[in-house]
């Protein structure tokens, strides 16, 4: 029992249990809109995608699944998003039971969780923000769909609620076959969606910090400062690059007015970082925009949030490390603080392992399919980074390739936290050190 309750194993087992239950529920005949029950592989892929809040689908969510099936899917990505957001809290609770104070303090520092007495406070913030933000976003969407698109109240309610919850959890699921393309020019729909995506994906350690020190940025934690800075940087880069790369593309933002170009370029930048929604045809983007998506999807969002990827904090630590090395500085510094050596090693480890998984997944997918390498790479990174976007080939992949994507989704969602937790809890000081030597690098 003690081995099972290890934080890394507990998170993995919890997600596996949710996936198993979700698969069984989606295989019930009542969950499918048509006759008969959904095949196990379709149900399993959908359950993995929902619990891991990815948004990839091999069938059309709005027509293949019944109302009951859609409720199950929404419940699964709600559980998956909430489970990921409270992962840091669970880790803190379990580590706090350890009698080793040094281990507890090290875990809270390196995993970017909060102080020993803040666990209950974090749990309250998680629940409060989840409920309040989802209700507000859903209400805005419901009103817009009812009065702006003349939907019946029942249809507007379900569509607004489903998309609001999906956006906050960065799940990317939509009950429309075209995603959000029908709302591509509507800021009153895309605006609330972007707000929910950013709030849900920025990470609760950051939200907790902002809640208590909103007017005192000087005392924000280094993690908060790095996450906010990195998020803003990536949003601006994604927005400007998309605007420039797609400006004259007649199949994407080319036909839009200036306001439409700006709105959709911003939405692409926000959604590419693990949200999984598309207001434009992803398959119609330029090759350069696909390459931009590789970068944004792989990085993802903030730690202990609903977003996936290797996380903004990892990216920023590595960026600072490279910057310090280029300047010849012995220490990696930012905002008057020195980044710990253990955090740097963990960031490098997560990046290398994540890159390796994506590379191996891509190789296997190329072996199993005949699609161009650009589309295959896109699918692999989107699955690993919990982005859920697709160039349109997911449903056309053979079942074996779809199972590879399911494994990438699971590892990308659970594996990064498991690895980080294992690194933190497994760190120990050795009673000896070998003589130092410098091999040739570069």
**In DSSP terms, counting alpha (H) and pi (I) runs of 4 or more, how many helices?**
17
Helix content estimate: 55-70%
Low-confidence stretches: 92-117
Q: Please tell me what the overall shape is.
A: globular
Radius of gyration over all CA atoms, rounded: 22 Å
Overall number of strands: 2
Order of helices and strands: HHHHHHHHHHHHHHEEHHH
Could you give the order of strands across the largest sheet?
1-2
User: Overall pLDDT, averaged?
Assistant: 86
Distance separating the two termini: 47 Å
Major sheet: 2 strands, antiparallel
Structural class category = mainly alpha
What share of residues are in beta strands? under 5%
Describe the structure.
With 442 residues, this protein is an all-alpha fold. It has 17 helices and 2 strands. It has a two-stranded antiparallel ribbon. A hairpin with a 2-residue loop joins strand 1 and strand 2. About 6% of the residues have low confidence.
In brief:
This protein is an all-alpha fold.
Give the topology, please.
Blueprint: H1 7-26, H2 40-51, H3 61-64, H4 67-85, H5 87-95, H6 101-110, H7 119-148, H8 153-168, H9 187-201, H10 204-213, H11 222-246, H12 258-272, H13 287-299, H14 312-327, E1 333-334, E2 337-338, H15 341-368, H16 373-384, H17 399-426
Antiparallel strand pairs: 1-2
List keywords for this structure.
442 residues; mainly alpha; two-stranded antiparallel ribbon
């Amino acid at each position: 029992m003690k081995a099972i309750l290890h934080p890394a194993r507990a998170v993995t087992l919890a997600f596996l249990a949710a996936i198993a239950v979700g698969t069984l529920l989606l295989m019930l005949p009542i969950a499918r809109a048509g006759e008969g029950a959904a095949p196990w592989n379709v149900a399993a892929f959908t359950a993995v995608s929902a619990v891991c809040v990815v948004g990839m689908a091999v069938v059309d969510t709005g027509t293949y699944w019944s109302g009951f099936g859609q409720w199950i899917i929404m419940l699964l990505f709600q559980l998956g998003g909430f489970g990921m957001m409270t992962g840091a809290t669970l880790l803190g609770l379990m580590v706090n039971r350890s009698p080793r104070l040094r281990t507890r303090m090290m875990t809270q520092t390196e995993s970017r969780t909060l102080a020993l007495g803040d666990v209950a406070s974090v749990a309250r913030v998680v629940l409060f923000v989840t409920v309040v933000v989802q209700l507000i976003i859903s209400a805005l969407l419901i009103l817009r769909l009812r009065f702006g698109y003349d939907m019946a109240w029942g249809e507007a309610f379900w569509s607004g609620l489903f998309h609001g919850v999906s956006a906050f959890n960065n799940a990317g699921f939509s009950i429309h076959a075209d995603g959000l393309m029908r709302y591509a020019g509507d800021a009153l729909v895309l605006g609330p969606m972007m707000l929910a995506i950013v709030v849900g994906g920025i990470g609760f350690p950051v939200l907790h910090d902002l809640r208590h020190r909103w007017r005192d940025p000087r005392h924000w934690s280094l993690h908060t400062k790095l996450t906010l800075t990195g998020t803003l940087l990536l949003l601006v880069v994604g927005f400007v690059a998309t605007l420039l790369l797609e400006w004259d593309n007649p199949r994407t933002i080319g036909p839009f007015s200036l306001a439409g170009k700006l709105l959709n370029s911003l939405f692409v930048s926000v959604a590419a970082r693990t949200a999984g929604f598309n207001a434009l045809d992803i398959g119609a983007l330029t090759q350069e925009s696909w390459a931009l998506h590789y970068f944004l999807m792989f990085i993802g969002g903030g730690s202990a949030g609903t977003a996936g990827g290797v996380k903004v904090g990892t990216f920023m630590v590595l960026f600072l490390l490279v910057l310090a090395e280029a300047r010849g500085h012995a220490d990696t510094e930012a905002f008057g603080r020195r980044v710990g050596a253990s955090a740097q090693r963990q960031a490098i480890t997560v990046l290398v392992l994540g890159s390796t998984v994506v590379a191996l997944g891509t190789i296997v997918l190329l072996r199993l399919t005949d699609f161009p390498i650009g589309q295959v790479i896109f699918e692999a990174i989107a699955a690993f980074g919990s982005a859920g976007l697709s160039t349109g080939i997911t449903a056309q992949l053979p079942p074996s390739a779809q199972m590879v994507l399911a494994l990438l989704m699971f590892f990308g969602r659970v594996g990064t936290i498991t690895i980080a937790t294992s690194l933190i809890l497994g760190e120990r000081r050795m009673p000896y050190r070998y003589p130092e030597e410098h091999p040739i690098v570069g």
